[in-house]
Each structure stands twice: as structure tokens, then as C-alpha cells.
Amino acid sequence: MSTHPVLRLVDFLVNRPGWIFCGMYVDPPQPPPGFTLETRQDGFLGFVTHYRFVPEVKANG
């Protein structure tokens, strides 16, 4: 049984691997020590919709 195309679209837009969905009008939490915050924005209105924590990159030398 195949999934309805609308449900597949919603799943694609909301459930992105490695990203956490926070919804519109909600600020993502502060990153833990040693990490930076990356965000993804809605392409139409510019709201933050997803976030993830990425380890900080330190320069050599």
C-alpha cells in the first residue's frame, strides 16, 4: 500500500535527517558548550523551521 502524495510531501518537509523540527514562531534552544547552532529557514517567509547542533571547528595554529 503506497502512502498518499500529500503525506509524503509533509514527511519530506518536516522530517529531515539530522535536523530537529522546531516549528514556526519558536526560537531554537541555545547550543551546548562546544557546539554551534545551524538553522534552516522557510523559503517563503524566512521563519526558522529546523535546527541542529554542529561541533565547533577550531583553527589549527
UniProtKB/TrEMBL annotation:
This is Uncharacterized protein. It comes from Devosia riboflavina. The lineage of its organism: Bacteria, Pseudomonadati, Pseudomonadota, Alphaproteobacteria, Hyphomicrobiales.
